[in-house]
Amino acid sequence: MNRKMTSLVIGNSAYPGQELKNTTNDSEDVTTKLGDFGFSVIHLSNAKKEDIDKSVKSFRDNLNSNDIGLFYFAGHGMQIEGDNYITAVDTDFETEMDAKYSSYPLNKIIEIMEKSKNKTNIIILDACRNNPYERAWHRSASQRGLAPIYAPKGTIIAYATSPGEVASDGKNRNGAYTEAMLRHISTPDITIEEMFKRVRNSLAVITKNKQTSWEHTSLAGDFFFNVSLGNSVEIYSKEAISDELYMLDKTKPLHDEISDLKSHNWYVQNPAARDVKKKTINKADVDSAFVFGRNIYQASCGSSDGSTDYIVSFKEKTAGVDEENRKAILDGMLFEVFFTSKGEIRENFKTSKFNRVFEYQKYSEFDESYNFIADILIPYQSRFYVIPGKRKEVTIDIQSTENKKGEHKITGVYFAGNNILREDDDYDFYEEDGEVPYEAMRKSAFEKKLSEDMLISASKLNIQFSFEGNSRSKILFPYGFTIEK
User: By C-alpha distance, which of 36, 44, 48 is closest to 8?
Assistant: First the structure.
């Protein structure tokens, strides 16, 4: 399911003399989550009024070419004469009038979203924080926080507190409201209204019932932040997507072979992969073919030579197989690279046979399979430099220094103008004589590492080296460093 979604996320903390602790963290974490769900995100931290104005105009343009629009703000918000304003880091708080004309009117954002061509709008305001500037104006308690707003058709507006109340900045990394929201926003297959109900319950626990979130909605349909693959992939059943639930019935075509591939026994796996008959595949349904493909890849990663042979010779071995089932097998192999037996995105992708299955991307007859995997990886695009399956050639530049032995020490890997070589936070190493130790490898092995770590098919990766050499040239790659996303 390819949803077209755009968002504007702002987190302001650097208010003069009254800095908030968590709001930029809030906006960063919300930006990451929205990116995981497939939103394009315009993100601002510590924005001036001019910055907000420019970004809202860009957001307006994006709304007209997307189905879903979302605006999130963390920082100081205020009501003046019944209208709500979000404040910039250069807002003048000396008087109410100064603040009004140097802040950004929330009604303008709502009106822009209402009049755009998209179908659904979401506004989330963690902007009811206790504002010391308002206290200096000697206002009544009822004038603090934000005034209630009624959502236009197709819109939901979510507040960190009930109208007229204020919220604290929070004790941990995030404000209390955003902390509660981040706990629940990734829960699969719950409507946005149900998600905010869960947020309200968690917020009550976090704040010991001192803060109650509030929403007003006029949504006509259901919206889900996180749609599970079982509900978003329509061509295969939920049981095939979460294949730990897939029930084997040995009276059905391909189920014997799937059972053997699941055995973790090479002597059983190898003949199951090598001897499978085309007529057996043709008699199977697409779910069985998909699960068969998943387990071929799984067994190959477990060093089943027969399964690896099947992948290497897939084009020839499946010539004459029903096109729907042929596609399903390749879909299954590609799917297994990225998703667990529960149908969840892997923490660590299975890359040992990555290039084997992506080798077929050069053949147009397999385009539908690569479009399939690219589409379902869109919600996780923040995990990739380029979404696997996209027919796009990528160029990277390698920076190195040559030592007296003629070995080439890697000092930079440049992608889109940025050095993506970085220390691996999960790797502990010791420096030798004050220098980072290096792992030696041939140039060909280094090229394979680049492809697998970046999850870009070798056939789509154009590597520019800063030295002349051949496949046997010696490369020194620094231990404790990575180029993974």
Answer: 44
Walk me through the domains of the chain, giving residue ranges and CATH numbers.
5-227 (3.40.50.1460), 230-381 (no CATH), 394-482 (no CATH)
Name the token pair of 4: 């077209």
| Cα gap 163→173, rounded to integer Å | 25
CA 252 to chain CA mean position, Å: 37
- Average pLDDT per consecutive 10 residues, the chain (485 residues; last block may be shorter): 87 89 95 91 96 96 94 91 90 89 94 92 86 60 67 92 73 92 92 95 92 91 82 84 92 96 96 96 96 97 96 96 97 96 91 94 93 85 85 90 92 93 72 72 93 91 90 90 90
Report how far residue 118's alpha carbon sits from residue 6's, in angstroms, rounded to the nearest whole number: 10
**Cα–Cα distance list, 100 to 81, 86, 94, 164 (Å):** 10, 10, 10, 18
Residues 299 and 272: their CA atoms lie apart, in Å, by 10
> CA angle, 24 as apex, 4 and 140 as ends, to 5°?
105
